[in-house]
Amino acid sequence: MLPNRAAVEGVAAQMQLAEVKGRSLWADARSRFFRNKAAVVSLVLLGLVAAFALFGGLFAQYENDFVDFSLIGSNAYLGVPSIETGHYFGTDSNGRDLFARTVQGTGISLMVGIVGALVAVIVGTLYGATAGYYGGRLDGLMMRIVDVLMSIPFMFVLILMLVIFGRSIFMLFLGIGLISWLDMARIARGQTLTIKNKEFVEVAVATGVHPLKIILRHIVPNLLGIVIVYATLLVPNMIIFESFISFLGLGVQEPATSLGALINEGSRTMQFGYYWQIAFPLFFFVVTIFAFFFVGDGLRDALDPKDR
Amino acid sequence: MLSFVVRRLAVAIPTLLILVVLSFILMYAAPGGPFNSERPLPPEVLANIEAKYGLDQPFWKQIINYVVSVVTQFDFGPSFQYKDRSVNDVIAQGFPVTLTYGFWSFVVAVTVGMSLGIAAAIKQNSWLDYLAVGVSIGAQVLPNFVMAPILLLVFTLWLGWLPGGGWNGGQWQFLIMPVIALSTSYMASIARITRSSMLEVLNTNFIRTARAKGLPMRRVIWRHAMKPTILPVLSYLGPAFVGMITGSVIIDVFFSTGGIGQFFVNSAFNRDYSVIMGITILVGTLTILFNLLVDILYAWIDPKIRY
Amino acid sequence: MTLKTKLFATTSALLIASTGALYADGHATHPVTGETLASDQTFTYRDLDESPSIDPGIAEDSAGGDILRDLFEGLYNQDATGNLVPGVALSHDVSEDGMTYTFNLRDNAKWSNGDTVTAGDFEYAWKRAASPELASPYSWFIELMALENASEVIAGDVDPSELGVTAIDDTTLEVRLTQPLPYFPQMLTHFTTFPVHQATVEEFGSDWTKPGNMVSNGAYVLTEHVPQEKLVRERNEMYWDNENTIIETVTSLVINDENVALTRYLAGELDRTDVPAGQFPRLAAEYPDQAVSVPLSCSYYYLFNLRDNAPEEIQNADVRKALSLAIDRDIIVDNVLAGGQKAAYTFTHWATAGFETPDIPMASMTQAERNAMAVELMEGAGYGPDNPLEIDLVYNTSESHKSVAVAISQMWKQTLGVETTLANQEWQTFLEARSNGDFEVARGGWCADYNEASTFLDLMQSDSGYNDSKYVNAEVDELLAAAKTSDNAQANYDRVEEIVAEETPIIPIYHYASVKMFAEDLEGWPFENFQQNWYSKDLYKIAE
């Protein structure tokens, strides 16, 4: 489910190497990344998907919650995708424009993915950096807590939470973030242990800079590489995860929707021949996830070049 | 090594306790109760039921009673929803089912995934590689709640080859579709991880040396490259295992297999407290044990790791 | 085992083997209709979910009821149209005051282990169902039956042995009520009143309902039960009317997803399944002999929160009426659901026995007229495009509730400019919110307990426990109380429906229909039975 920890750790090792060599890591990485065709194409695709989510609504002929009552129940022949009717992607089973809904669903899915990943990396990085920086007993305690939390089947806990506190986007972010910050915390701690022995950190300590400031100013910036890679690989997993939650009926509230919810509805009606109801959302879902995976892989390779 | 195992097992006990308390609190915070229905029960009927299940006692007493009966008698209490059964009955019936198709899915995911990944790495940039990468990414992004109805349409309705659901004691015809639907996305992940890990290993100096010495490729791969390749795959197996147990929810819904996934989701919706607790503890224990097993395997394969 | 019982067992087995063969050879004919019977007499159907219990005293859902009517037999059964036919009881006498019933039981009714079914088995079962010790969620049914001491027994104030039911001898059962109940015999087809075998219950405790342990007196016995997967029951050789039972094996499969169930039905794995919302027209066109829609005794409605804590907008009857008028029920029933449901302007289901749907002015208007009137009312209340009404609508998680809510919120928006916030809540959360008054508008559904209009309209009574609106109207209370003893209850019901339509504490939306697919060769289904109480022993499959 989560990105491969070992691969991400390689990135960090490389960043330190770059520092030793005194070369600009970021410039190097950028040029390597742009040589990776799959990653570049994926980045362009991601841009297009994001543009679709942001501006697609301008082209929609209908509001995403507008029900065309004449179309309900006659999907098979009236709700088909068509340029003339303005329903470019057809309508859903409730007579709503699928184009507008796909635009809106793509937006929600991207947001859930990105915000979920952000929550995870921010919490994980700060937690890991703090544990690593202070070391000693605090470190031991904080990492035991991570060990304990890792053994909890969080998907189950999340289902309980959504059932109990009612569904909301906030709850989704919180739940998803909760599940995925643990790995990040471990990686961040490991890197912090090496960074904190560097001269610039020691100088800062010697001049009496507040520990919190050291963590934020000196340690976290040096973790940025792995954070970016980890986050990129986490986003598609968050999106897949949200689709599972939608399947259970615990996703976002109507009339808002997400790609997962649309796919779930589409998969119910495909046996009746309404293929477009699953095809369009699934297309955007697949493209988004593909693209994130490739960009993530590309970033990792760019930041961690081993002559392949 | 032994002390490591002991230490990990010692952590497991507080972990499970935390899990129990957390789930208990979550359930208490939940609106509704196991005995609500469209037609509210008269108060005297409700009082009888609560007395029968010990819900009329204070919160702390319930937790203590619960923990004591679990620890001393391995008794998870009666199910509140399925009134003819105890939680032990529910688990005894549902868990072997989940375990059976989970086990086969695991086997399929690991063997097919690794073979695909290794083949792709060896023939890097060939049509085989592209095919393997394409198939694995495709399989990874197709959610299994889409896969399941498609399988049903094709194999049950159109071709008529396989029964559309049920378990029938685990006959092979009833296993095929659940295993395919559950294993594909994990198979794909394993293939991707294996491929990149193998590529990395093949580029290391010791493999280059081995090949330069003229050892045949097959031997190089089996003798030298396999072990380091497996390590990242191993660390993925922990999350994969948990994912499969959770994914059983979807399998049970679509294929009516009667595994614990369905029981868990239903009991969460029905506020069947005792079943939620029982299954959460079971899955928590399994997760801990499985993660431990993975760590032990890891240490066994990679002698560099010291605990 | 003595020689005698052994002999008996073998002869009966022989007897059955021969009757079984008679039906299995494919040339047998139905004893009444003369149709040629199929050689394969199995009936397999879909259940949405596992039933909480199959113990007659504890069971609580209608799917469990279907199973129990096969496994057990109460004093009376229903025929295809819902009329009473003898079960274990052959007849009964009622005392002058209508409070004492004496039932005459048949002497040839047998348990599946060969024991005779006696009046004592009923006495035991009823006392057990009411006892606080069993703590059955359906013990209130015994209270509903108005049995003497029922409330006191349930509350634990008197011993269950004081319950108003006594076995005079093996074939005579006396029942004492606290008030005359004209529909009392009808209630005896309900599973809570089914007998249980005391020795078995006492031997196995709560395990007695497991296959192998269970002893039952119905036309079928339980042979296999895998929760969340299937439940299999087979012909009971000991059943008194065994020779007229045709279906050999009945299997209920638990299939949560209705679309999956439909796929499996079409693949020939099921003989009966449910039709997903909106799919009836297509399936009826494609499989005219298989898709069936019959009225089901439930009403679907939205209710307003009329408690003091609710926002004042919806305390205004004009606003409520406008919202009701603006709902185009024809679209809901014809397009959204499309399964033979009927548009509802009254709360009482149109097909309820002895109920004549009164003339509600709204019902005879066109939708354009209704919309015009709605806009007028809304403007009168001070809402319009500049000052749109905002309202929250909660419903419980389900595809069809969602479709209805989406359509209605759009009707309100498009006609009245009302901004609706939809909130889909998971079942238990929903129930809690609704009974605590934590909502503005909520979905409701109500199914008849018995076939008479008061089963619906009593919800409008201000002190009814099910009146989640907390609607209070003294006139309605009086009318409903008077209807209990009135010779012409219909007049009272008409008036109540008129008041409800005018004040709109609830918005009736549609009256349910049961929409199913039935295998072509399956015959004998009681479509005319309003409560859809069916018995597998009345079904049969014909050869094609």
Structure, explained:
The complex is a heterotrimer of chains A (308), B (307) and C (544). With 308 residues, chain A is an all-alpha fold. Helix content of chain A is 73%, strand content 0%. Chain A has helices at residues 5-21, 25-35, 37-55, 75-78, 98-134, 136-150, 154-165, 169-195, 199-206, 211-247, 259-269, 276-303. The model of chain A has no long low-confidence stretch (mean pLDDT 80). With 307 residues, chain B is mainly α. In chain B, helix 4 (87-122) packs parallel to helix 11. Chain C folds into two domains: 14-266 and 519-541, Dipeptide-binding Protein, domain 1 (Alpha-Beta Complex); 294-514, Dipeptide-binding Protein, Domain 3 (Dipeptide-binding Protein, domain 3, Roll). Chain C has 18 helices and 19 strands. Chain C starts with a helix and ends with a strand. At the B-C interface, helix 2, helix 4, helix 6, helix 9 and helix 10 of B face helix 4, helix 5, helix 8 and helix 15 of C. Chain A: Pfam families: BPD_transp_1, OppC_N. Chain A: One of its GO terms (cellular component) is plasma membrane.
